[in-house]
Write a structure and sequence with these properties.
mainly alpha, 2 domains, Growth Hormone, Chain: A, globular, 411 residues
Length: 411
Amino acid sequence: MPHLLPDPGPQRTIAASNFVYTVGSGLYLTAGVLYFTQAVHLPAAQVGLGLGIAGALALAVGIAVGHLADRRGARGVYAATLVVQALATAGFLLAESFWPFVVAVCAATAAKGAGLAARSPIIRYHGGDRPQEFRAHLRAVTNIGISLGAVLAGWAVQVGTHSAYQLLVIGNAVAFAASAAIVFRLRPVKPEPAVRGPRWIALRDRPYLALTALDGIMAIQFKVLTVAVPLWLIAATAAPHWLIAGTMLLNTVVVIACQMRASRSIDTPAAGGLAYRRSGFAFLLACVLISLSADIPAWAAATLLLAGVTVHTIGELWHSAAGFEISFALAPQRATGQYLGVFGLGAGLAEAVGPALLISLCITWGRPGWYVVGALFALTGLAAPLAVRWAERQRPGAQPQPESAEERVAA
């Protein structure tokens, strides 16, 4: 899609690096677990435990590396995280038992979390007047890259041989290394000067921490389409199983086509808070539609599932755009990496607890569980504008701002 190609310059370089990186991510997201269970023959329980340990470690690393990127220069720190990911992923080829697997996956996962924080100052530096919009642009590119990686991984899964899975791992490592090489084409990002006062200011910013928690709860929605919907479709509906791929394709196409457009109107923290609220109600409606697909004819179930996924994806666009705006606009420039590292804690916790929560509520409990999940999203969305106003009041030099027309109508 031509509108996804930035003009020549730093933004195109960042987009190219991101595209190559996400092709590798698509390979791993689609078949990484299968590599360890089918090719290495580790028990699924051990793989799950190792991934849990890695996820917990990644939560702690992001803040520290984000702070390092602020103080030492983001380009070099970000490139280093990509190199570590490439080496750790290549180390999967040597992980033939549980503890080598844990070491390799911990290094790869921690480097991934650190890279997301270290990349934030680069996006702010090269993102122009609205780095939030450029971040939305990168999310659209991300979905294209992951989709392509998923197609390539599908070949390895279909062949199913040990060599095919090893080629998948090698391709993953090569993609991360190539992404690092592209990053070095960027101009270095000048480190922000240190100032007197507490070092870990993001951890003292209570309104920002509150928004991080709210975004983390809302981020559980990313697991709805990858965990809850496939299991629900198979266990509770008469819809054809190929619709699992169809729902993911629908979500990906809508995000690629509409994420940038959805982000343009969300250009202030207040607008971000209202977008959180809209997304919460969209997720509630989507949960209701999906829950109603049980115990009805296949055509009706498929129709409700597609409608639910469409509404959910609209909420996802608003949620992502709100997160881009809030996380950047409320973070001081001198501590962008540290603040974005803190903001990533919410998504990390959602990654850790989301699948188990959705399975226990939506799958084990059934239809009432969908309503509980939807209500959780809606209540979180209602709380977000209050937290945004709190954060804006706490910003240095903040002045009381009158409510916008949209806020008065919404209230």
